[in-house]
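Hi C.,

You asked whether I'd gotten around to modeling the 297-residue construct. I have! Everything is below, sequence then structure, no commentary in between.
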Amino acid sequence: MEFIVVVGYLEIFCSLVSFLSSFRIFLVIVLGSDLRKMRSYQIMAYIAFMECWQMSATLLGGIMVSQQSKLNDTLYAVVGNIAFSAWMTLLVLRCCLALNRFTVLTSFSRVSFLEHRRFHSVLMLFPTTVLLSIIILCIIYGHPFVMIIELGGWNFIGIDPCRPIESFFSNGMTSCAFGLYLTTFIYIIKMKHQTHMHVDLGEFRILISSAVAFSYEMCMIILFHCIFPFIEVPPWTVGVIGILWSFLPGFNGIMLLTINRNFRSRFFSLKWSTVSTTHVLFNRVPNIFSATSSLQH
């Protein structure tokens, strides 16, 4: 069996695992009355939904690679557009999640407006605006982003504004998210050292799982945008990147379930009942070092 065919089957497997993981996460959040009221989980549900969207495209792309055929010209174009629009939206959403972690776990008075409900509404609207804009771009320019069947990876074809737009969002959103996560961790370490206060473990678990998952995405973006364009790489690396890209949502799910015990119990539960909440009282201090430690995270 040729290497590229194996790549196709691995992309099918990884895409299917990622799709099922994201779909289950989406259901757990949407059907959990307490979770869907929380801003962090609202963003995570949106991410899971878009990951399902993206994985439906990578699954079909993997089938095309395994068969070494476009199957259908229209389907080939649509699959690329779905993958591109979902990827752009996910870049924004993961940056929004990093901003949410920064807002919840720090207490800088100059950015207190980030805690307002209206700001969260605007924050949730921004990825949707990006999604619709990318869909319009794909309609105008046909199918700028496609699966390179002979190599098993995704890339742009032709000359259009979609490539620089992707570079801008990949590099810009990743840099912004990295800065937010770094600032949040430094703040927590500094406050723990100075005040010795208790940390809200539920919020901290979400921070850890999202930061670790983000590091996976950041490494892929660095490879694609900062390393591969400047060195000569063998063709097989394109297929490997395609496999890793298909597994990204699956890795995110693994991190969430590994670190967040209470969400894990909901994920594998056959019941949709809400997990009970235990409150532990501490002295009143800003944000993360505040009153309640909740098992709902």
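If it helps when you're writing up: The radius of gyration is 20 Å.

Thanks,
B.
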